[in-house]
Amino acid sequence: MNIKITGTGSYIPANVEKNEDFYNHEFLNSDGSSINAPNEIIVKKFKAITGIDERRYAKNHLNTSDIASFAAEKAIENAKIDREDLDYIIVAHNYGDVRHDSNQSDTVPSIASRVKHLLRIKNPKCVGYDLLFGCPGWVEGLIQANAFIKSGIAKKCLVIGAETLSRVIDPHDRDSMIYSDGAGAAVLESTSDEGGIITHNSATFALDEAHFIYFGETNNQEINDSCRYIKMYGRKIYEFALTNVPLAMKSCLDESGIDISEVKKILIHQANEKMDEAIVKRFYELYDKEMPNGIMPMSIGKLGNSSVATIPTLYDMILNNSMENQEISKGDIIIFASVGAGMNINAIVYKQ
Q: What's phi and psi for 91, nearest 5 deg?
């Protein structure tokens, strides 16, 4: 029995937020002090580091559960399955439904229950639950769905990654320019077809690293703002990721018995262009190899960092020929890899 992705779908929000749209922001240091540089210079440096030109924000009337259901509909249609046959709906996210101009996250009922409701699935045996695993949540959802199917608990699972990070960013924090909204989904099922998930690897580093990404106060200490916003220690995350993600990828690939020369694509969480490139280069250095051209497709330049949605969205775009000079063919070996809040890391070796 092989366990494969049989359908994918994604939702890319319509609203485009360009780098120039941040020129009128008042960016401050974390202690509230002024940054001694004009916003044009701040944004230029940001672009050089992250590779981001623009990002997507969901329209005001849409929430995380809405865009998750849009991606799910496409994945179900692409897989050509009856939605009533789904055994699990696993929704990876981090902040639930945060309505526009609201300061409160809403997670009751769960986002998965809301998605099931929006999909109009009647079967009570279709179980929905939320997965909080930071940015690697969608990859971890695939790993969990794989275990359900392998054990005989399930036959078909829908795994979704969706987030509206534009609702939880501090407008006075330069890091707010990284984040975006989006959703991606995949149907996973057992099949006699060759390929699927070959090996996987997950880990949580929480002794010293648990709070590298956290919810914190606005950088503007002169206003009365009780809200909490997504915050991170960027340098610590960079060093952590560069050390640990290549090792996780290598462990996963070595366990598979597949030679690194056979890897066709590495779909890595779209966190930061320079960081992602450094991770993949380090991975190849572990085998005394150079990173091949075109091995690491990147969507962050136009879509930003939508957390759990980046990898499934990227995967769906490539399969639908929506990325220039990028393709995935049947039989190709792919590595999915991610890092994020927790600090969590994971990787999957997958045969298309």
A: -115, 115
